[in-house]
C-alpha cells in the first residue's frame, strides 16, 4: 500500500495552518483537548477521509458509480463497532493528512502505511493490512529488474506517498501524479519508466483490466503495515484499536480481505515484524 517524506510533512503542516487560518474544514468531530470519541458518538457519524480513486481499496464501481473497496468496507465495519454511521469524504491523497488536521474528517482509511514520521505526527491504529511494495514497468521494458534499477529512471508517484520516497531513495526522478490511474497512464505513454506501489494494487489492476502491457518487474523488499490514522492525541485511536481487534476476532477482517484478495492480508506474513521506514502511503 502506500507510504509517503519530511518535505511532504512540512508542506502538509503548512497547508493545514493555512486551512485553519481560513477556517477550513467544516466537518470532523471533536477538537483539540476534547474527547473526539464522544463527539463522534454524539454526532452518530464517523467521517472517513479516503481517496475514492484507489482500486481495490477505495474506488467507484464502474457499473453503479457507488463508492466501494476494501478500505471502504473496513471503515464501515469499524463504524459499526463504534455504533455509528459512516460518512466518506473523498480527498486526493496528497491533501488527505491536511484534511485530517483541518478536521474535515475524523480518521483516514486509505492504506496509510505506518512509519516513524507518521507515528510522530498522527495517532495510528494497530495494523489491519500487510502488503509488499513492487516496481511496475511496461511489459516490454527489461531495463529494470530490481529496486536499484530505478536509479536514473523516471517514476510516477503521488508526492506524499511512501512509494515516492522509496523511488527517490532508489535514485529515481519522481514525476508527480494524483494517483495510481494517472501513474499507469504515464507509464503506458512512455512518459515515465516505472511506478512503485503495493503489489495488491498492481495485481488488481492487471486482473480487472486484462492489461498485459504492465508488469511487476521487481520487489522493493519491504513488507509494509497499513493503519487507520487519527489526529495526534485523539482518543479515537483507542476505540479504533478495540474495533479492529473485535473485527479480527470475529473474522470480519478476514472475510473482507478474502472478498477482495482471495487471501487474508490482515495477518502478518513471515518477516512482517518491521514496517517499511523509508517512506509513507
TrEMBL record:
SMART domains: PBPb. The keyword Chaperone does not apply. It comes from the Bacteria. PANTHER family: AMINO-ACID-BINDING PROTEIN YXEM-RELATED, MEMBRANE-BOUND LYTIC MUREIN TRANSGLYCOSYLASE F. Belongs to the bacterial solute-binding protein 3 family. The keyword Ribosomal protein does not apply. It comes from Terracoccus luteus. Residues 1-20 form the signal peptide. This is ABC-type amino acid transport substrate-binding protein.
Amino acid at each position: 500500500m502506500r507510504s509517503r517524506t519530511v518535505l511532504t510533512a512540512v508542506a502538509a503542516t503548512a497547508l493545514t495552518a493555512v486551512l485553519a487560518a481560513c477556517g477550513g474544514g467544516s466537518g470532523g468531530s471533536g477538537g483539540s483537548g476534547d474527547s473526539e470519541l464522544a463527539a463522534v458518538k454524539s454526532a452518530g457519524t464517523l467521517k472517513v477521509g479516503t481517496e475514492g480513486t484507489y482500486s481495490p481499496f477505495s474506488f467507484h464501481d464502474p457499473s453503479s458509480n457507488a463508492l466501494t473497496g476494501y478500505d471502504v468496507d473496513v471503515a464501515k465495519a469499524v463504524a459499526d463497532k463504534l455504533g455509528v454511521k459512516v460518512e466518506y469524504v473523498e480527498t486526493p491523497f496528497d491533501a488527505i493528512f491536511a484534511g485530517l488536521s483541518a478536521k474535515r474528517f475524523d480518521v483516514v482509511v486509505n492504506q496509510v502505511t505506518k512509519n516513524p514520521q507518521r507515528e510522530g505526527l498522527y495517532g495510528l491504529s494497530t495494523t489491519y493490512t500487510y502488503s509488499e511494495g513492487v516496481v511496475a514497468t511496461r511489459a516490454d521494458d527489461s531495463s529494470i529488474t530490481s529496486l536499484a534499477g530505478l536509479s536514473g529512471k523516471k517514476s510516477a508517484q503521488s508526492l506524499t506517498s511512501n512509494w515516492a520516497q522509496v523511488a527517490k531513495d532508489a535514485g529515481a526522478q519522481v514525476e508527480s501524479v494524483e494517483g495510481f490511474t494517472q501513474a499507469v497512464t504515464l507509464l503506458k505513454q512512455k512518459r515515465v519508466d516505472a511506478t512503485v506501489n503495493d503489489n495488491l494494487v498492481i495485481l488488481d489492476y492487471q486482473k480487472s483490466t486484462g492489461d498485459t502491457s504492465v508488469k511487476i518487474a521487481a520487489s522493493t523488499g519491504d513488507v509494509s503495515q497499513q493503519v487507520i490514522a487519527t489526529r495526534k492525541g485523539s482518543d479515537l485511536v483507542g476505540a479504533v484499536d478495540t474495533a479492529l481487534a473485535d473485527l479480527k476476532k470475529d473474522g470480519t477482517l478476514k472475510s473482507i480481505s478474502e472478498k477482495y484478495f482471495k487471501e487474508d492480508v490482515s495477518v502478518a506474513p513471515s518477516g512482517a515484524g518491521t514496517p517499511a521506514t523509508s517512506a509513507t502511503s
